[in-house]
Write a structure and sequence with these properties.
Length: 467
């Protein structure tokens, strides 16, 4: 099967050939753990979960290694720790913030139907690897020490005239453009505006480790080198796919690529660089001051995670997405219907058309259109049609619950007693069967008073919460 993926670096859709089909390797930049993740953060998690599932389907479950890191050293974490745990020693407070946030993140993305990655490395557990990369960069003349900092020099990289990629190739910008566009308040210890931090001194009380480069004071790593180190440790000097949101292309991924290629003397860090488009909410950029800042947690209070997952996948991962209540409501209806048709079906093989569309750079919108067709076939067709429909849904991470669990989730999200609703619906169905429409209307009204709206179809009656 031809798996084709869009690569940001070469700016084309190319056939995916793994370096080692026995161990297909993918790295995705994970969360900085200081607060609840918002629905924009959910996008890369869901998109790369679909890719992970597809790779497992194609190469076998045991032949894919998916690494998603946890950034647990960051100024925002320090600020949050000081604010939430005043009086506590900073390092202890930081551990509390990061542990708590990591737990919340896992609960949220589990609920969105995402498989756990194979490895979830924490930045603070990879300081020796970061120091090793920095020492190599210093030795090879790509980095220098200034005022207790270590800085990477993109100019030195581009002057090296070797197999190295050009700094700026990923972001598709020239170094001259970047220098011209650099901010005016450039740190005095930088030789050039485009030099970036590999290591910096820690302030008193902040987390700190012995520094590389013979620097006498303790310090902490820059953000970019963390990912180079974790990817190296868990996936090697080169691997297949590196992913994240489009905002990470520059500077984060450009810098990771530069550090890794220069440290390991390689022309390539990852064969494919994949980036999801940005998410906005109800037509606007998400922001706390606009009041349209939505956490995954907020949404999970109202909707099952699979509803949010489907809403995300209706848009192709590289396009921008406008997150709207209307779209979420439609997804909820669709999933109610899919659960009714397929939740009790045995899974066999997913439909070939579904696999082919996913293999075409994760064409999920087209896949979902095909699923609607498969649904109709499953509702009126054979048990095999139903099992193929169910397997197709499961490949995408849907239908992970039984019909009963699905109803229960709706109950939890709405506060409505789903068992009672189901009983009343059964009584109403019996009334309708004996043509007692007075009784069936009465039950419909009783449910309406509970905030429950019924929808009758050939396959039966589904319900949803009136909004
Ligand atoms: P952060 O914690 O801000 O570093 O973001 C974690 C991941 O979420 C990164 O891959 C970001 O690119 C991605 N991300 C953040 N905001 C959005 C958004 N509004 N839309 C899509 N992806 C986002
Ligand atoms: Zn990263």
């Amino acid at each position: 099967m031809d798996l084709r993926l869009y690569d940001t670096l070469s700016r084309e859709k190319r056939s995916f050939v793994p370096l080692d089909p026995q161990n297909v390797r993918m790295y995705v930049c994970g969360p900085t753990v200081y607060d609840y993740a918002h629905i924009g953060n959910a996008r890369p998690v869901i998109v790369f979960d679909v890719l992970f599932r597809l790779l497992r389907h194609v190469y076998g479950e045991r032949h894919v290694t998916y690494v998603r890191n946890i950034t647990d050293v960051d100024d925002k974490i320090n600020e949050r720790a000081t604010r939430d745990f005043p009086g506590m020693p900073l390092n202890e407070a930081i551990r509390k913030v990061t542990e708590q946030t990591e737990k919340q993140f896992h609960e949220d993305v589990d609920a969105l139907g995402c498989l756990r990655p194979t490895v979830e490395p924490r930045a603070t557990e990879h300081i020796p690897e970061m120091r090793e990369i920095i020492e190599r960069l210093l030795q090879r003349g790509f980095a220098y020490v200034a005022e207790h900092h270590v800085l990477f020099s993109p100019e030195a990289m581009n002057a090296a005239n070797s197999i190295l990629p050009r700094y700026g190739a990923l972001a598709n910008r020239s170094l001259d453009e970047m220098i011209a566009g650099a901010r005016v308040d450039i740190a005095p210890y930088k030789r050039e505006a485009t030099d970036f931090v590999l290591w910096k001194p820690s302030k008193p009380g902040e987390p700190s480790w012995p520094s590389p480069g013979g620097i006498k004071v303790e310090g902490r790593p820059g953000w970019h080198v963390e990912c180079s180190a974790m990817a190296w440790k868990h996936l090697g000097e080169q691997f297949d796919i590196h992913g994240g949101g489009i905002d990470l292309v520059f500077p984060h991924h450009e810098n990771e690529l530069a550090q890794s290629c220069c440290a390991f003397h390689e022309s390539v860090m990852a064969n494919f660089w994949m980036h999801n488009g940005f998410l906005q909410v109800e037509g606007d950029k998400m922001s706390k001051s606009e009041g349209n800042f939505v956490t995954i947690r907020d949404l999970l209070a109202d909707w099952p995670g699979e509803v949010l997952r489907l809403t995300m996948l209706k848009t192709h991962y590289r396009s921008p997405i406008d997150w709207t209540l209307k779209s979420v409501e439609e997804s909820a209806k669709t999933l109610d219907d899919w659960y009714l048709v397929a939740s009790d079906a045995e899974s066999e093989q997913p439909a070939p058309s579904v696999v082919e569309l996913l293999a075409d750079d994760l064409n999920t919108p087209h896949t979902i259109a095909v699923l609607h067709g498969l649904r109709n076939g499953a509702a009126s067709g054979t048990e095999r049609d139903r099992s193929q429909f169910a397997a197709s849904l499961r490949l995408l991470g849907f239908l992970s619950e039984s019909a009963a669990e699905w109803q229960q989730q709706k109950q939890q999200a709405s506060g409505v007693d789903a068992e009672r609703v189901d009983k009343l619906i059964a009584v109403r169905t019996a009334a309708r069967a004996r043509k007692d429409f007075k009784e069936s209307d009465r039950i419909r009204d009783e449910l309406a008073a509970m905030g429950v709206v019924l929808k009758d179809s050939k396959e039966g009656t589904t319900w949803e919460i009136a909004r």
